[in-house]
Write a structure and sequence with these properties.
The protein is an alpha+beta fold. Helices cover about 60% and strands about 10% of the residues. A hairpin with a 6-residue loop joins β2 and β3. It folds into 2 domains: about 180 residues, no CATH class; about 70 residues, Alpha-Beta Plaits (2-Layer Sandwich). It has a 4-stranded antiparallel β-sheet with strand order 2-3-1-4.
């Protein structure tokens, strides 16, 4: 996921952002900005050089595994940027900003689904979060605000606005990419035959569930509430299992963005 996500991100930067002279957000944005100001290195090399002191600092505050995975993402992005030469041929500036944001955000989301990061600003954000409990979103917002404020003084105004649109779309695309991999449904089932339903869930869906002790507010009779966590694909199958066993069952579904532990996602340790 780290390698594929980094490659996708670079395709968006090399094939869309660079031909239109966009400034993406984060440290890659700093690399592009420096490149446009005639620094005699391409953005991939500038990005790698910027990351060197950040990784040195990170060694004192963040776990070795997180640094190793982030280093893999950074090296992959820098190397792929050197060897890949692509231009998607999008001429309209607005279309390019939207497309570039979708591609780079999707790639960045894949990397963040791992136990690492994209390097650069992610490292700064994690350190500030660990040391001072400053939210990651606040760090990204303030950094990009300062970056684009500088861009307005040196670059064409329309170009900077298009870059901001790209950064905004990339953020939305990244969130969607994370949710696509991570979103689950929490289902509560109130039925007169909870054990039969639980047995069918295990047999037919190969997932477990939990009984929660409760009682009816009106009848005062004890009830066993069945709770399980499931993905979107399996939801209709679960619904069918429940109502085939008990057509009077109460079937409650709630969205949950993140489920960590057991057979689900691993806890991300910085």
């Amino acid at each position: 996921m780290i390698i594929i996500g980094s490659c996708i991100c670079v395709l968006g930067l090399k094939g869309i952002a660079e031909p239109h002279h966009f400034v993406p957000g984060g440290m890659f944005g700093v690399a592009f900005f420096a490149y446009y100001l005639s620094v005699p290195l391409n953005p991939g090399l500038i990005y790698a050089l910027i990351n060197i002191p950040l990784f040195i600092i990170a060694r004192f505050y963040i776990s070795g595994r997180f640094i190793l995975y982030s280093l893999l993402a950074m090296i992959t992005a820098s190397l792929v940027y050197q060897v890949v030469h692509v231009n998607f041929g999008i001429e309209n500036q607005l279309y390019a900003a939207v497309a570039g944001g979708v591609v780079t955000g999707a790639g960045g989301g894949m990397v963040l689904r791992s136990l690492g990061s994209n390097g650069g600003l992610d490292i700064i954000a994690v350190i500030l979060f660990q040391k001072f409990n400053i939210g990651l979103g606040k760090v990204y917002f303030i950094f990009n605000l300062v970056l684009y404020a500088f861009c307005f003084f040196f670059l064409n105004t329309d170009l900077v606005i298009a870059s901001i649109i790209m950064a905004f779309v990339a953020s939305a695309s990244l969130e969607s990419s994370l949710a696509m991999f991570n979103q689950r449904k929490v289902v509560f089932i109130i039925s007169t035959c909870p054990q039969d339903i639980a047995d069918d869930i295990i047999a037919k869906l190969s997932i477990s569930s939990t009984f929660i002790e409760g009682s009816g507010a009106f009848s005062r009779s004890p009830k066993q509430i069945l709770m399980t966590v499931i993905n979107n694909v399996q939801l209709k199958r679960l619904e069918e299992i429940v109502f085939l066993k008990d057509d009077q069952a109460l079937f409650i579904v709630e969205n949950t963005f993140n489920v960590i532990g057991s057979s689900f996602s691993k806890r991300k340790i910085y």
